[in-house]
């Protein structure tokens, strides 16, 4: 009889072990995102964009086809930067003049969820691309003082750019924006 009780006890333990092994295991917790919170990141972006203040620069253009030279004076002072962590939205007022004439005086905003990628480039590179797209592929450009552009690109031709005199700061802002885009669920979802 002892042997029978022992056999039954072993059988019951085996059944209990089998049943417990079949219960679903809860998924592991999601990893904590590396880096600062979205609120801290957005505050950093807002502060650094606002600190840039007025930007004055000259654009020297040379047309390699006909030898003509052009000099344009630009002045820009974006203001009222708001980087809202609750909506993942960056908004500001854009004010840009070319040779004293107003080119832009409007409110601008974009959602970080819609940003697919960010790039940092010399301002000349973007201006040359823009001139070529406007039918002037022979125009060479020099910006003085040298400036760097952080471009947040979305679907299609949607993009927003921010100019910086300091390449290191442009790269820091781009890094912060990439982090914010990831936290907001943006970024390029194309696996290839």
List keywords for this structure.
192 residues; 35% strand; 33% helix; six-stranded antiparallel β-sheet; alpha+beta
Q: What characteristic shape results from the CA principal axes?
A: globular
Mean pLDDT: 86
How many domain units?
A: 1
Distance between the termini: 69 Å
Give me the Rg, rounded: 28 Å
Enumerate how many helices there are, as a single number: 4
Largest sheet: 6 strands, antiparallel
What's the helix-strand series?
A: HHEEEEEEHEEEH
Secondary-structure content class: alpha+beta
Q: List low-pLDDT spans.
A: 6-21
Write down how many β-strands occur, each being a DSSP E stretch of 2 or more residues: 9
Helix content: 25-40%
Q: Please indicate the percent range of residues in DSSP E strands (runs of 2 or more).
A: 35-45%
Protein architecture, described:
This protein has 4 helices and 9 strands. The protein is globular, with a radius of gyration of 28 Å. With 192 residues, the protein is an alpha+beta fold. β8 and β9 (159-164) form a beta hairpin. Strands 1, 2, 3, 4, 5 and 7 form a 6-stranded antiparallel sheet that branches. Strands 6-8-9 form a 3-stranded antiparallel sheet.
């Amino acid at each position: 009889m002892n042997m029978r009780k022992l056999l039954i006890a072993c059988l019951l333990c085996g059944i209990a072990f089998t049943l417990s092994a079949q219960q679903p295991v809860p998924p592991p917790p999601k990893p904590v995102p590396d880096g600062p919170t979205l609120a801290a990141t957005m505050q950093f972006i807002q502060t650094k964009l606002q600190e840039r203040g007025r930007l004055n620069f000259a654009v020297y253009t040379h047309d390699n086809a006909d030898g003509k030279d052009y000099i344009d004076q630009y002045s820009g002072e974006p203001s009222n930067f708001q980087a809202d962590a609750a909506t993942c939205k960056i908004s500001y007022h854009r004010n840009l003049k070319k040779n004293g004439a107003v080119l832009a005086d409007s409110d601008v905003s974009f959602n970080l969820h819609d940003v697919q990628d960010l790039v940092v480039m010399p301002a000349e590179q973007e201006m040359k691309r823009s001139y070529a797209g406007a039918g002037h592929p022979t125009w060479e450009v020099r910006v003085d003082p040298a400036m760097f552009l952080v471009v947040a690109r979305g679907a299609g031709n949607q993009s927003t750019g921010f100019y910086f005199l300091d390449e290191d700061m442009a790269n820091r802002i781009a890094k912060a924006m990439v982090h914010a885009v990831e936290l907001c669920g943006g970024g390029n979802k194309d696996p290839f």
